[in-house]
Protein: UDP-3-O-acylglucosamine N-acyltransferase
Amino acid sequence: MQLRELAEKLGCRLVGDGETEVHRLAPLHEASEGDLVFIARTTDLPKLKTSKASAAIIREGSPPCPRPTLLANDPYLTFVQALRLLYTSDQPTPGVHPSCVIQEGVRLEEDVAIGPLSVVEAGVTIGRRSVVGAQVYIGKDSRIGADCRLYPQVMIREGVEIGDRVIIHSGTVIGSDGFGYVRGEQGIRIKIPQVGRVILEDDIEIGANVTIDRATIGVTRIKRGTKIDNLVQIAHNVVVGADTVIAALSGISGSAKIGDRVTLAGQVGIVDHIEIGDDATVGAQAGVAKSLPPESVVLGSPAVPHLTFKRRVAAASRLPQILNTLKRIEARLVSLESASGTEGQQSQTAQSISERGAH
Amino acid sequence: MQLRELAEKLGCRLVGDGETEVHRLAPLHEASEGDLVFIARTTDLPKLKTSKASAAIIREGSPPCPRPTLLANDPYLTFVQALRLLYTSDQPTPGVHPSCVIQEGVRLEEDVAIGPLSVVEAGVTIGRRSVVGAQVYIGKDSRIGADCRLYPQVMIREGVEIGDRVIIHSGTVIGSDGFGYVRGEQGIRIKIPQVGRVILEDDIEIGANVTIDRATIGVTRIKRGTKIDNLVQIAHNVVVGADTVIAALSGISGSAKIGDRVTLAGQVGIVDHIEIGDDATVGAQAGVAKSLPPESVVLGSPAVPHLTFKRRVAAASRLPQILNTLKRIEARLVSLESASGTEGQQSQTAQSISERGAH
Amino acid sequence: MQLRELAEKLGCRLVGDGETEVHRLAPLHEASEGDLVFIARTTDLPKLKTSKASAAIIREGSPPCPRPTLLANDPYLTFVQALRLLYTSDQPTPGVHPSCVIQEGVRLEEDVAIGPLSVVEAGVTIGRRSVVGAQVYIGKDSRIGADCRLYPQVMIREGVEIGDRVIIHSGTVIGSDGFGYVRGEQGIRIKIPQVGRVILEDDIEIGANVTIDRATIGVTRIKRGTKIDNLVQIAHNVVVGADTVIAALSGISGSAKIGDRVTLAGQVGIVDHIEIGDDATVGAQAGVAKSLPPESVVLGSPAVPHLTFKRRVAAASRLPQILNTLKRIEARLVSLESASGTEGQQSQTAQSISERGAH
Structure:
């Protein structure tokens, strides 16, 4: 595509040769001829001189640039739009591969594509233009909306409801049994049948090898627009709000309720039955054991407000010095006491503290 | 089902109209007509008035309830039994789907069901009434007991032994190679062949996307009755005792030995070659680096007894105040020293501590 | 195999009856007749007396042993070599199972084996002697090198490049979309198309249920010789160096760069865009938020040098004692002040600290 054409489609100002041909977007350090690069920081502009990139997207108002340039007010958003223009995604031809096993009473709306060796059980509905990859399993009576994409080897159990424009990556399991038992005699655990459902609303994306358990009774629900990274665990009866983001390796325990526009960073743990308020942010590796009000920002395990956490980390770093200070203070007390003739109380000294262990 | 019939089958006392029809169990906040609800806490009883539920299970001895009621001594257990009565699980018709690939020398006992597109390698035995879902893989010479359920896309490698009444959820991998290498020249790692096995005893349930590695030599073993949640890692040569519970995203390193009736909460890590005693409880996100005696209750990373942990967390929360107290003490010492004519020792002040960083 | 033959092949010194037949390697506590055991520690030698093992591998220079013995300078390496001799791995017959779906333009080099019900998309190349298990998916234009092994149910997306002698375990997903969005109006997230690739260099092993995301643009790269355990997350545009080891349940965030010969223990988290220097070691459950120089050894969340971490843990264990010491110091100050007639400043006492909580 010519840079001039791209500029028009993106609504950017063009500086330099509009005839320049660009074929690909590339990171600055990997760019070769025909590549369009995206410069996030002005300090990276000089690197463009030694790059083989043919053109660059930079922020309107940046210093002049040694390549033909697209100037954008929001260069990151322009970069994403350029990606969409240059990479037309690989939409497969509609139709069901003959190797699939499609059971009775399946309803496929127009232009659905299903890849090889997938299994669709009885009573399933799949909406218009949805693409189901190879080796996918869709359980009885589940419903998939329109314009969805299920990548190869996704597993959807029975009775799951999925909205429109939902993307699910490979290896992800939706609707597995929740982890619930009652203690019988002699500590033996009796399985609680997990007869509830999972509902994924519209515009959700779920990463690879995620697990979302069905409710015991009722519904495990993910609300619209929420994005979930790889290897995340969502337990039974959890409700995740709208436009929330959950990073990799996080786990949300049973019946927890996560608000709208919440951010859970990586490896976060949320205990069962608590509530995380709207717009809260939970830092990486935090462990949240109590409900959080809206707009909380927490860190640590157990999680505390992030300023408290930072103060504690800073104070903890001074602990060895505190021990030293205590020793010096005690020495000064002894001097004062002997000078004044006051008898020092029999006390455990800081010295003895630093020689004894914990517990 | 009529409430009267349910009361008889569950051995509960019925209060109110025995003709009431119930079709479904539902959570209190979602219940509609025809639903039976389960009231865990007396404080939830008033909510029943505004609920559309047709009937309720409550604890014997609770205040009167505005709906036809089943009174139970253990209402939670009764709820589970009611689930079993109202939801007859979807037992598939026995038989092997014609799309499966079943190799030579496979022995299927009576009433086994195998779903579409599964692969069963040579020498496998599957016990009576076991249900193998679609797209499952069972490796050479593995043995599955009776009344097992393997959900779609489970992967069992060769030589794995599985007892009776074992449930394995989708995406789980049993018998993958352990993570073992020897360091050769120049730091290059040479793979140690992993030629051991995995044994899962009776009455085990394993969640979705779990990984259980085969032993290097010998056996990785999970003992009877143990329940494992989603996304858990069990390394080579681990032994997990009976009736133990392991929550999501926990990892047990090589050759660790977990006792009977142990509870590992979510995201717990256990280092290699240690032993966790019977009836121990390890709190969420704890990291256990040393063997634990029976009945230990630990928290934290590194894990310590839970009371120690709580004391430390409480003390840590007072650290900034400790710094302030030290400053005030030093000021008082200076006053005393100047009053008594004693020369204060050259000392690092608390002030200087709070201004300097860590390390 | 006779012990004499094994000794010759392994280059070990034989002590005792060379006619002894050994069939299997076994752990000491499980050994039966015909088993060769490996004694790692001299203290385990007495256990051999009560073992049914037929022979043992022990370190050259150890005390005499009550069984026919192979003496080795590096007994662990010898054990690994013995494993390779006694367990010839199960190399399947070359050929493509007729149940597979192989699209057009696929190039299979000589002696490739592909198990049942796998899908190989258009434009894929698979190198000589590589073994692809059952139910594997290989996306369009991906290239697999020679002598690779993909276990059943591996999922490789389009455009992935895999070197020679790479092993990938079941359930692992290579080339799923990175987790990247731009914030549009009203907090709605717009997906950034993930059009980059994944390159796995030679001699890599990747565990079960791992996820490695493709780059946004450019490459997510794992360099030669690196070994990755189960359930690990590698985000988009990450670069992992050569001969690095990553233990289970660790997560590496987007664009992070991990050096050569690095060790990440279990459940480690690495934030995005940072750099971990060559030969660094990150302890279990550590959370690394800042770049680390080469040869760092860190622990904790946030991670600090391991000696600092140990000092802090030790100091934290003394916190309750520090509170007691402060109380005693204050009592002594009061005595001194009343003796000298100095008025104690109005101050928050240690007592009050220990009675008040934090936040």
Observations:
- The longest helix of chain B spans residues 319-340.
- Residues 24 and 86 of chain B are 7 Å apart (CA to CA).
